[in-house]
Amino acid sequence: MCQDPVSYEQARRQLAEFERLFAGFCQAAQECIKGFQQQELMAAKQGKAVVSIDRKVGVLREYLGARSSGNGVITKEVKQVEEDLSNETGQIKYGSTDLSKVVINYRRTNNIYTARNVAVFEYVQDRELKILAMASKRGVGHAERLVAKELANMGVSTNQVTRIYSELEPCSVPGGYCKRFLQNTFPEAVVTYSFEYGDKDSRTRGIEALKNAINKLLD
Known about the structure:
The protein has helices at residues 8-17, 25-45, 51-66, 78-84, 98-110, 143-153, 178-185, 200-217, and strands at residues 90-91, 118-125, 128-135, 161-168, 190-195. By secondary structure, it is an alpha/beta fold.
């Protein structure tokens, strides 16, 4: 049983212990989820940020659902849950995270196989984690800017955004300045990307790497 379900660190250690004590896992995990939700409500009443708590609850639920394949066979390790909760920032391998996979699926669904950058924002709305992905449009705007504008039109405030993933590194070039824009507008969001997009040479390398990754999607 979780002695202090409101404490994430204790909950994480409990989850590791439940690798051995699978029989008691479900009940304990549910208590941890309730604890996080209680903490969330308290934080909301005090006007504090609750994004990180929402994220923990979501991953705990995912873990709980992935613990068994239906016949008692464990299908997800504690190590993977720790990775899910690591809030990795900066450059990541293409397709290595849930948001990167969302972008890949967005490309396939919308038949986008050119080097147009695609970005996805994860945000909290109505106590649920949601996502919105868009591709850059020549003469209209960069993907990060377009998603941010659409979320604003939807009434989503900047502090509701939890994570941002862009295939290309958020730029620092005139006409975009997406890196500075994201830092200033969404300071609480975890930002990741897969391909470099710094100076001129870096941008050339990044675009070429993105093209190669897109070509592999066609194989």
